[in-house]
Amino acid sequence: MNTTTLTVRPLTPDAWDDFETVMGTAGGSRGCWCMHWRLSIAEWMEEKGDGNKAAMRALADRETTPGVVGYLGDEPVAWCAFGDRSEFPRMQRSSLLKPVDEKPVVSLTCLLIRKDYRGEGLSTELIAAVCTYLDETSETRTIEAYPVEPVAGRRAGPDTAMTGLASTFIAAGFSEVARPKPDRPVMRYDLP
Asked: What strands, in cross-sheet order, belong to the sheet with 67-72?
């Protein structure tokens, strides 16, 4: 069990190597490099691997960060992608993840814990650290997430678990605001 508090730092060019460490040689799941929600499926498939990596690298160079790297001490162990909902065109087109209302939100789209640190309860700690970071840096005061809540007796696969598990968001203080599908709640947290 970890005894160090998880901290987060924005993905910038200085943190790129740490981001790569968390993503591993496969770039997360199947060469995604956390571009799944930012591209159409055709673009994502065409750019899978090095193209998606280059696209995320370009996002790391901009003033507004595409997410944060999580650390235990100096060790990079986690990643969380977020942004204004408008930054995720694939989400905008999804019947499953269409906007619940007109309220502006920061969307938490992907969570990743490095393989050798999974099972240590870091997801809730990562979510809490991201909320603290956004409280200090974001003008938008509502955070929205799209986790999976696996059906009893089933595990979430990597293609669905990338958005996190509902139980970890509940533990971090999020509340359900909609449920477009039995296993897919939409959850929110209002920053103070």
From this structure: 6-10, 67-72, 75-84, 106-113, 142-145, 184-190, 175-181
18-75 pLDDT, tens digit per residue, is 999 999 988 988 789 999 889 888 888 788 889 999 999 999 999 999 999 999 999 9
Could you tell me the residue ranges of all domains in the chain?
Answer: 6-190
| Alpha helix segments (H runs only) across 70-150 | 89-93, 122-137
At CA 49, angle to CA 59 and CA 20, rounded to 5? 60
What are 151's two structure tokens?
Answer: 């059906």
Q: Quick one: the chain helix, strand, coil %, rounded to 5? A: 35, 25, 40
Instruction: Tell me the residue type at 69.
Output: V
CA-derived radius of gyration, the chain: 15
The whole-model pTM stands at 0.91
Tell me the CATH architecture of domain 6-190: 3-Layer(aba) Sandwich (3.40)
Distance CA 51, CA 53 (A): 5
Please provide residue 182's backbone torsions phi and psi, each rounded to the nearest 5 degrees.
-50, -35
Pairing mode, strands 106-113 and 142-145: parallel
Cα(157)–Cα(94) distance, integer angstroms? 19
